[in-house]
Structures are given as C-alpha cells and as structure tokens.
C-alpha cells in the first residue's frame, strides 16, 4: 500500500503544517526523503490555502491575499539526486478528497491581481464547480458538463542559490520599469506572509526575505499551469540542489490552455500519487534547460472542436507586431462573443474558456505584422448543439443564472 | 465529375494567368462564378510562383523577390453572397501534381524577410522534401519521415473598401514607428509587382497602388498558416463584398504550428477541391469577426509527443512580460538543442520544427511575468527513438549531410 | 457528498451481506431505492467473493467454486421505473479500495471451467497484478505496464418472470444436446450456493431453485465483459420489472476484448459511482432489445498497434465455415507465438492478451468459407520495442519468472 | 516521379489485360519486377471487372457472374524475395480515377452468393455512392455523409504449390459435407472463367483447373477485407515463392467491420501506391503464419459512437454456443432496428452498416453459452442527431427514397 508522506488538514491553517511552504528557496529543508523507484502520495491544500469558499458570493475572490499563494506540499528529497541530474516523475494518479467534492474559478479584481481579460472583467467574479466522479458542472453556468483533465498547476524542484538570485534580479528589473503599475508587472519577494516549511528563526527570516514568489513559471517548471501535465504523464525535471527537493501544489480539476481567468482553473484541494527516478547527468546529456514531458495515455478525448481565430490587432483596432498574447486574447474574445449568442453572459463564457479543456494554439508567428492564434472549443461539453447552421442559434439560456460579482470596495 | 475551374501552368509566369492575383482589393473581378452547393477544383502555383527550385543550393531562397508573393488562385464568386453572410467552405480534398512531387522549406536571410529565429539563423538555407504518397522525407535531413497534414496556408474572401483602408492605415502606422527596421515591421502596398487578376489599365494601376499585401493574416482569414485547416475541415468565412470572392493559395504539404521558418512550411504547388454554401446574415447571427472552423475527421494521428516548455525570459536572460512569442521561441530553442544531441545540425532541427506536425500550445498567459508556451514534438516521425533514457542519447547522424546555406552577397 | 448506498466488507463472507446476490430473479427485493437524477456509490467484492488470494500459487484458481459466482451488489430500485423503460446509467467513476491495490488473472483448469484456449492451457495458472495509481504491472510477467481501462464486467437489471423462464428453457435445451460435456455447455440454476439477497425461507428456496446463473451475457446486459463500459460511459438498459433493479459487480481493472482467459480480466474488488435517469417507454421508442451505450470521453489512448490476423481454419488444419470464434482464436495464437520470440512463456503471452487493452475486431464475415478476425496488440504497453525489424527480435526475458501453475489433483 | 507499373483500361475487358489475374496459383508469371526499397503505383479495376454500373437498378447485382471475381493486378515480383521471408509493404496512398468518382454497394440474391443477413434480405439490392474528395454520400440513402477509410479488400502473395494443395483439399472437404447447399459452403476451382495473367496454352489450362478462387482470406492474407489496411498502414506478408508475387485488388472507398453486405464495401476502381522491403527469414524470426500489420497514422477519426450489443441467441430465439457470428448478427439487427426509428428502410440501414466506418468488436467469448459482440456506429456520419433522448426519435426521412431492389428471375 502506497504511503501518504505528506498529509494536510483542510480545517487548519497551512502555516501550521511544516511540510508546506509558499516560497522558493534552496535552504528549505526536505519535508520527507524517498529513494529512486519509490512511489508515494502527497496531499495538497488549494493554492490559496482555503481562502475561497463554496458559496455564492465573490467577496472572497475580491479580498484574497495573493501574497500568501501558492501553498505547496514538499519539498520531497530524493536520495542520490545531484545538480545536473534529471528527476523523472511519473504522475500515477491525482484525486479529490471525499469531503471536498468541489472547486472554484474566479476573475480577480483589476485592483488585486487582474487577469488576461481584466480590461473587460475588471471586478471580482466567482463560479463554483461540483464534482461527480470524473465530471464537473457549475450551478452558476448551466448547460455545460465535462470530464476533468486533472493536473497540478505547480510542480518543480528547488532552485539553487545562483538561480534564485538570477530570478530575483531579472524580475526586479522588470518591475523597476513601471513600479506603480496596477496590477504589478511581477511579484517580488515578500517576507511577511512567507511560509518556509520547517525553517525557523533568523535563517527562516533571511530566506523569507529573498525567497522567490511562486507565481510565474520559471526554468525549474514551477507554476507552468500546463493542463497536459495530467495524471499519467511523465515529467523530466532539472535538478539544481542536492536531493532535488520536489514540491507540488495548485491542483486543478480542469483548465483551458492559458488558464486565462488567472484564478484560474477549477482550483481544488486533493492528492497526487507519484513515482520518482533519476537520469544522472541528464541535463547535459539531453541539453535540458526547462522541464520536458510526455503526455498521459489517458486524457479526455474531446475531438470535435469549434475553432476561433485571433490576430494581433487588438480590440481597439491597434496593430501589434507578431504579438501572440494579443492574438490569443482576440480569439478568446471572439469565442466569448459567439457563446453569448446562445444566451450565456460574457462572464459565463469567459469562465467556460478558463475551465474547460480548451486548446490554445500558436498558429502563425511569422506573417508580419500579425500573429495568429487559435482557440479550440470542444463542442461536446455543451448539452446543446453549439455549431453554426443556416437558421442561426437557438437561445438556450434565459439569463436567470449568472456568475456572482462583487464590486470593488 | 467535378470541374477544375482554375488551372495553372507551372512552366509559365503566374503573371500571365488572369485567374491569379497577389494583392487584396475589392475591385478584383471574379475569376469564375459558382453557386451555393457547388463543388469545384482550383489549381495553385506555389506561393513564390516558382522562384524556388528542386536543387541543393539556397541561392534562390536568399534572392527571392518577396514583393511578388503570395500568388493566389481566384477570386471565386458565389452567387447570392452578400456582405454580412458567412461563406461555408468544405475543403473536400487537397493534392499534389503528378509532375511535381516535391516541396521546399527555407529560412530567409535576415536581410530579406528573416523569420522567427533569424537572430540564430541569419542566412538563407533550404531543404527539399520529396513526396511519396501521403509521406514526405528530405535528402537534406536524414532519419525523419512523416505523413503530411496538407492544407492551404492562405485562404479568404476579398475585403471591402472600408476594410482595406483600415488595414492599410493600421499597418502603415506600425511601420512608421520604425521605418528603417530590417526586416520591416510590415509589408505595405507596392504596385510594381502587383498582379491584379483580370484588371487592366488605370483601374488596375490604382488598385495595385493600394491593394493590401498578402503577408499577414487579417479579419478575413488570409495568410493564417493554420495547419489544421486541412483537407476535411469546414470553414466559415466572413463575406465583405457582393459574391464573396474566395481566393486560395500557398499550399503546404505539412507545417508545424507557428510556421516558424517563415519559408515556411513544406511549400508546394497543387490543387484544392472545395464545396461552398452560405449562411445568410451569419456574421450577425453568430457574432463572427474572424473565420471559425471545424477540424477534419482525417488527420495524421501522432499521439506520442515529447513536449518542451519555454517561458518569457529570452535567450539572453532578459525578462519579458507575459510574452508568448518569446516563450514559444524558448520552447523551440530548447527542442533544437535537444535534437542536436542525436546528431542533427541546428538548422536541420529548426527545419524539422517548421515542417513536421508539431503543436505549439499557449499553456499559461497569466502568471506574471512569465508566459509559458509548449512545443509538442511527435516522436513517431523519427526513425530512431528520441526519448530520454538513463544511458543518454545515441548519436544517430554523422553530420555528413546538412541543409544547404547561401551566404548573403 | 455522494452517498455510498451499498458497502462491502472484504473480510466477511458475501453470503452475510444481504445487499449482495449471485443469481438473477425478479423476486429479489431491492437492496436500496433511489430517484431518477440521483447519483450514488456502490461497493463490490470481486466476482469470486474473495476465493482468490494475492500469492504465488494457482491452487485457489484450480479449486475455485464456480457455482458461487458472480457476487453482485444490488439490486438498486429506481423510483418510477416500469417495464419498457430505458434506464440511463452514467458511470461517473470506478475505483479500487485503498487496502486492496491488486487484482488477479487466471486460466481455469479444463476440468473446472476451462476457457478460450483451454486445449492449449488445460491446467490452472494465475498472475497477480499490482496497481500503482492508474497503472498496473505483474510480478509474474516482466516488461509490461499499462493504464487500466477500468470497468464492470457485469451490470444489468432484473429479468421479468417471462424472461427468466425463456433463459432457463433455452439454456437447458443447449445443455441437453451434450449433457456430459466438460466443460459444460451452459450453467443451469443451482440452489445450493445461491445467494438471494434479502430473501429468506420458502420463497428464497423457490427463487434459488430457478434463479438464472450470472455467467452469460443476456438481453439485459449482464455479464457482457465489454471493456468499453468503462468509467465515463453512458449505458441505456432495458427495464423488465417495476423499479428496474440494477445490479453490478465483477469489476475489472483492465481486460482485452473477449476476456479470453475467462478468469478473466484483472479481477478486483472496488466501488462504482453511478447516476441514473429514465427514458419512459424507451424500449419501444428506440426499438431496443439489448443495452446500447456510448463510450467514455476518457480512455487509455494506445494508438500504436501491432495487428494479428486469424482465419477460420483451426490450429489442426480443419476448415470451419465463417466461424469468427475460430478465427479470433487463431489471431490470439498468432500473437502468443509472436510474443514468445521476445522471451515470454506462452502462458505469460496469453495472460497479457487477456489483461491488456487489446482490441478484437470482426474484420470479415462473408468471404466463404473463412471468417477473418484481428487482434490489436498495443505496442506501448511493453517496456521494449516489440515491432518487427530486419534484424529479428531481441530476447528481452530470461525465462526466470513465469506464471504459477497448479496441476489438477 | 513514381512509375505506374500496371495500368488498366476501364473500357476494356480485364481478360484482355495480362497484368491482371483472378485465381491464385504459384505458376502465374510476374507481371512486373521491382527491387526492395522501390515504390510504384498499380491500377486496379473493381472486383467484378466492371459488371456493376452507376445506375438505379439492381439487375446487375442480381445477375453478377461471381465465378469471375476478384480481378487482381499483379503479381509483382520483388527481387531477392524467397520463401520464408517477410515482404514489408508500405501502403503510401490509394486513390480514385478522375473519370470514375463513384462506387457501389449491394446485397446479393440468396440464390447467387447471399450474404451475412441473406435470410432477412434475400433479393438483390444496390446503392450507388458518389465521391466528393475524401467524402462520400449516396443518392439512395439520404442523411449520411462520411470520410472514406480507403483500402484494398484483397492483397497478398502467391501461394506455394503445397499451400495451394492444402487450400483446395480443406475447402473441398467442407463443400463435401453439404454439396447442394445454396449458397455454397465454399467456392472451388473453376477453370472456365479463370484469368491466369500471362499464362497461355496447356500450362494455363492446367493452372486454371486448380487455381484457388480468390473469395476467402487465407494464410497469405488475400481477401481479408480488413478496413484498417488503409493508406498509411504497413503490412508484413509471408513469402511462399521466389520473388514473392504480390497481387492486389478489390479496392474499397470505405467499409464497416465484417463487410457484412458481401457486395460489400463501397466497391471501386482505382490505384494504389506502395513501397516494398524484405525481412529475410522473417517468418521464422517472428513466428509468422498470417500477415501482421500496423495501422495508418491517418484515418478518419469518428470518436463518438453508439454501441449495440448482440449475444449468441439467434433472431428465432435459439441458443448457440459461444458463436460470435450469431452474436454480431444480432448486434447488426439491433442497429438496423434502431435506425428504422428515424425513418430509414431496413435495407438502407443495412447498407450503412456495410459501408460506413463501423467497428465490430469481439467483446466476450468465454461466458458460456453466450458470446457477446458489439457494433460501434459512428454518430457523426449522420446529418441529424441519432442519439437517444427522453422525447424519442424525430423521423428524419419520409420514405420517398430507397435502395433499388431486383426480384429474382
């Protein structure tokens, strides 16, 4: 029987669990040690550590303390791992807690985090998604049910001292170009709300003051939010410190490519079952800088798509140069507009794109000056036919239900 | 028997064929008229109109006249089509000419077009790909063979007068921000090499002077270079002028997401078989700005991938803000580095990423400041095992063969 | 939180659990009642009720009491269901018990049940399969690991009185054609080991004496052993009695098409999460005799196959007339012979075909006198390359490990 | 440019083409010789050699001379091939003739060939299918259009003398058990209508008298009618004679598993592009008796199925013992009954099952006494929704169109 080496209690503060941390730092002690070939289970709180509740108000999303995120379980040390190795991780399974069969999706207020379409959705909104086995649906968004592509949003190994310094330097450099921007250009170290695992005292305070925030993906993987790192996938992580130090959290029941709503996927607490192995000297052998991975043999097969194009002319008519970010935003806005024709509110449509197994493809990046991106919307997630026909769309929703919104205070 | 309504002769200049044009303008007369429900075949020259030859020198890629591209077949008028309609196009089949069983891929010189990785590959290079039925391989890149995901790189309807003006205005605005840049930020109208189909005399000259270049994708679709617009797909195009005016060209035997080499996919001459129908008033009914489409039921199934991550820190260590373009470039560079470990030159690896059915996903676009993009490399296109293992890669190529390069003059 | 309406205790006899039964009879009282739209969880013992143990001897397979099988959980009554309705069952999830992370596969002795290849494997053998999350492997069969296509082997509604009588009559008719055959042609009612759920006394004894055995699939579904009835599928069952009476059991972690080893798939105890709905009068509306179903959106994608053909000339050279059974047996024997070239024993190869997600296709049934069947062996389940090449196979196994065999007493 | 080594003329008799033959015999001279590594194109007439016409009468199907079939193109000799080798054939492409964009499907009269459901459809019927690129539809069966899974129904190498003798002996043995049966149990040698390629004179007559008919699949492959031997697949054929002697014909635009209508698939004339290689001594190296193959990376993806079960109790209530043939027939009859609820005639439904990419799975073959087979009907081939719902089916067809029938004379 596989051992659960890290457990969580959803009723206590993650700060009280010394096998949890919320910053990246090489000095964080290993929470547990395993051997190559071992498999083990790790439990995780949701990324906010329980700040968001299963109710019909978006107040908690509006008021979230983002300096606390993400609460990660780990680090797990792997005997024999050394800098330059590749840590091979088989994600054998991921699941929910029996007593917590729900997740949340939200849009942050532009004043507190924002998101991909924050200009269009400047205020906090939230939808709750119920789990029924492999499937999910939301009481705030009728007419849609789908199988979750469950995955960790955040996973990776501890950075070395040098790597940490490089992260802090380059991100501070970016913030310094526009220090007063709202939302900020990057999240810099912030000791007050840091949770450094087993560390205590002065060494804890010193590490907390320089520990990298967990928000962006970086060389080690980290907060990649790649929906395809799902159960059944195999990941090769670069190792930067002795014993590797693998941490994981931010579990998602499902997510669309881009995690465009930022808060973000269908966010949940749960557990992950992994097996670890090593490729000694693998970074050099294979020329690895960022993690590489192989997808799972088991994923939801939604093979019928309606595909929306977007180009890098923004919604106000401005021409951008090969900007895939702008192009994908247009594809998303096009899909949202389309879905409103069936009766969805724009917020409901946006939430669907953030939660469902939507694909985002970089289709063309050389045809100056326009990048072209495509958003692939699976049609089988809808309980009605969303395909175009000569008669035009039937309005399937009466507007009586919407995604709760909480105005900025 | 389905009629071939536009024919081409690969031995004559495309300028001599009045059913070809290389600019977008509402006044270009219809080359042929069809009715809703009709299916028909259209032949196309390659996008350069025969400038690139089946040989082992990249001189022609270096010296290409890019002001001539793309040579399109059309416009085909559809009876009854009016502005605001959706033109429904079933791509029933696409094929090669029996006498032209090859295609080309290249990198343009930075002095003449450049490309996605032009900083890394500043000089012209070319690879020739031979077709054997559905499969292709290159004498310049050993060890790789795959089934082509054949598609038109460029397809769409004529713009209206207003839309044309908007294009020209916004693109000139961009060029004006850095008019001397090499390569240029956009390609502006250029009458000298314009081919305006059946137009002649002063009206031809006037239209040529303002006709939009065909390089970028735009609201009408155009040069989207979406590999998934393959045979078997169904596309819904916005209509802007009476009779719609559907033109098509730039056929690709295969292409990776992004068409990262710019010259670009495996470029070919060939034919396309289409069926057209109308959704009257469909733009309004479905809120359509850009084309939408449904993928084909028949596409190459390469389900085993090795996936490379990239983040928006560039190859010189600079931090960019949620820049998917930079992130995808890093994923591509990571994949290239990986393939060199098996003996490929960097140019060979780059060409593979441009030609093979590689997927490019927008994985995360909200985790400030790093975007995360993934490049999905199908492993089954290689004749050897490219997956990581504990022993490290076997070097499968001896370096005796490479992609021809022609130095700038 | 979804309720578990039927629980089992793996340490007690299934005969002591009145929500279990092992015969089909219309008078068996409902174990629980639910409403249309409800979802609920049901626990199941393995089909033999715990007769087979996690050890390295096949004695228990040899000595199994097959008159006891299959132990089913149920029947579950659905309010409002009436004869002629369709009971729509969404299989929302299926899982294992934390304390029972293993399953078994075996070949019965020809003297006690036999199987598809009993002429070739006349004595009892057994393999144990360990579960690691979604994956399974066996200490008795090295070199193979795969994701399970988990499903119930047996599921369906109670028969009506008339239907039960028809079953008993036609099956006894068959047995009477060769009453002394070993193994028997069919399994007839047998009261001694019957478990009739909540029934007691004379009515129990009367029902036990005529209750249909659970071995074959019948009009109601029953022991179909269809591997594609996996979690995520949706099944439409005919209803024959008031309240329907849905029973389920014989859970399989994985199985190949045909369940050719009879004991059979990877057999396990576990739980199943379902949701029920009704289509009133659906049997008549849709002309339904046997259940119909839709496959799951989530199944293991093993898309690279090696496919073996078989025709209806048997292994002793005899010509049969369009006999798919013989043809599929030849395809299986061909695959077994092939796998021995890599070092597997024939028994190991046979067990792989019974357990792995192998497909069996009826390819041709009209080309007199030969039927043609194909067995699709997924190549990615092997840790080495099983594909043919010019050099011939590498022997990957040294024969030191085999599937335990127990000689007939 | 790939050479077409065998050409056909659809306007002349196949008997006049010496690169065609319609019997299997080791003495038939090679039509052409190729070398390992070569690729080449072969043209084929339809299996009846043009007996069936593109019209609206089934008279030609009723009156067909089945002693003439199948007309095969070949044999192609491969230099260096010897008995015991494996001939590796890459099917690079398959296509139609520009002047022959149609195919036929039919049910033979029970008096002249019959078929899988001949008891239910005892008289000749025919449907004509038009090709539009990759898609096909029939004027006799409204509401259905699909992409063809194009493949050769018949392909294989010449038998040796010994093998031929074994075939003739065992098939005659079967016929002798019921020599007057209609339809016959097997098709024995018949010299009158034999076409022995380049053979002439006495040797031709001697070979014609003993040449095996082409109807059944046999050890060499032959008339397997496996729909998955489609373009893009790779097949390993046993070699029995010097130079192998590969012949091919009976091209199908599409077919369902089982080719249940016998006449059969969507039958067509066309061409096939192949590449050949050898594995010396491969039969022994890999223990090969029948061909093995790998499926194509490019096939129609119809992933949404409605699946019908059938068990081995026949349509008259009789119990059969593990008879997959009977079980699949019940699954087919169940699907036909279902489709009639939407307005199809039974003949139309039967033709759809014979022509569309339907899957037939051997689901259970051990649960005495019932085999269980499943028929997988792709739902996306229909222009309307064929899935069950609470309201019951909409009748989509008015019965004004049906499949032509010709009564026995």
Write the layout of secondary structure elements.
The structure is a homotetramer of 409-residue chains.
Chain A: E1 4-6, E2 20-21, E3 32-34, E4 39-44, H1 59-62, E5 72-78, E6 86-95, E7 102-107, E8 124-132, E9 135-138, E10 141-147, E11 151-157, H2 161-175, H3 201-210, E12 217-218, E13 221-222, E14 234-238, E15 244-252, E16 263-267, E17 270-279, H4 282-286, E18 292-294, E19 298-300, E20 305-311, H5 324-340, H6 346-355, E21 359-364, E22 372-378, E23 405-406
Parallel strand pairs in A: 1-4, 3-5
Antiparallel strand pairs in A: 2-5, 4-17, 5-15, 6-14, 6-17, 7-8, 7-16, 8-9, 8-23, 9-10, 11-13, 11-15, 12-13, 14-18, 20-22, 21-22
Give a verbal description of the structure.
The structure is a homotetramer of 409-residue chains. By secondary structure, chain A is α+β, with helices and mostly antiparallel strands. Chain A has two domains: 291 residues, Jelly Rolls (Sandwich); 102 residues, no CATH class. Helix content of chain A is 15%, strand content 31%. The first copy, chain A, contains six helices and 23 strands. In chain A, the strands form four sheets. In chain A, strands 2, 3, 5, 11, 12, 13 and 15 form a seven-stranded mixed β-sheet that branches. In chain A, strand 8 and strand 9 form a beta hairpin. The first copy, chain A, is globular. Strand 18 of chain C pairs antiparallel with strand 20 of chain D. Chains A, B, C, D: Its EC number is 3.5.1.49. Chains A, B, C, D: This is Formamidase. Chains A, B, C, D: Keywords: Hydrolase. Chains A, B, C, D: It comes from Litoribrevibacter euphylliae.
């Amino acid at each position: 029987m596989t051992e659960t080496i890290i457990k969580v209690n959803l009723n206590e503060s993650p700060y009280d669990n010394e096998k949890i941390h919320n910053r990246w730092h090489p000095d964080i002690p290993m929470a547990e040690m395993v051997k190559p070939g071992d498999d083990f289970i790790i439990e995780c709180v949701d990324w906010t550590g329980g700040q968001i509740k299963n109710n019909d108000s978006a107040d908690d999303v509006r008021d979230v303390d983002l300096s606390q995120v993400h609460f990660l379980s780990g680090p797990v040390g792997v005997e024999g791992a050394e800098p330059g190795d590749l840590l091979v991780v088989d994600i054998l399974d991921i699941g929910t807690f029996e007593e917590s069969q729900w997740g949340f999706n939200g849009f942050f207020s532009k004043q507190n985090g924002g998101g991909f379409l924050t200009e269009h959705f400047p205020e906090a909104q939230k939808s709750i998604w119920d789990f029924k086995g492999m499937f999910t649906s939301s009481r705030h968004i009728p007419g849609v049910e789908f199988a979750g592509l469950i995955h960790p949003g955040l996973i990776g190994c501890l950075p070395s001292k040098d790597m940490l310094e490089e992260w802090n330097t380059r991100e501070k450099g970016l913030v310094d170009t526009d220090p007063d921007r709202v939302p900020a250009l990057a999240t810099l170290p912030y000791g007050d709300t840091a949770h450094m695992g087993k560390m205590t005292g002065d060494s804890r305070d010193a590490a907390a003051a320089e520990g990298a925030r967990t928000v962006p993906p970086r060389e080690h993987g980290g907060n990649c939010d790649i929906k395809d790192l799902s159960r059944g996938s195999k990941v090769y992580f670069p190792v930067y410190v002795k014993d590797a130090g693998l941490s994981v959290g931010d579990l998602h029941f499902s997510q669309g490519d881009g995690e465009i709503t930022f808060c973000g996927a269908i966010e949940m607490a749960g557990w992950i079952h992994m097996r670890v192995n090593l490729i000694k000297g693998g970074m050099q052998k294979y020329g690895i800088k960022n993690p590489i991975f192989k997808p799972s043999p088991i994923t939801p097969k939604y093979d019928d798509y309606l595909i929306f194009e977007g180009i890098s002319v923004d919604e106000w008519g401005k021409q951008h140069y090969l900007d895939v970010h702008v192009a994908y935003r247009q594809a998303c806005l096009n899909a949202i507009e389309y879905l409103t024709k069936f009766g969805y509110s724009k917020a409901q449509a946006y939430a669907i794109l953030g939660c469902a197994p939507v694909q985002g493809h970089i289709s063309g990046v050389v045809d100056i000056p326009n990048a072209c991106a495509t958003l692939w919307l699976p049609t089988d997630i809808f309980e009605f036919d969303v395909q175009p026909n000569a008669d035009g769309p039937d309005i399937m929703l009466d507007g009586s239900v919407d995604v709760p919104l909480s105005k900025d205070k």
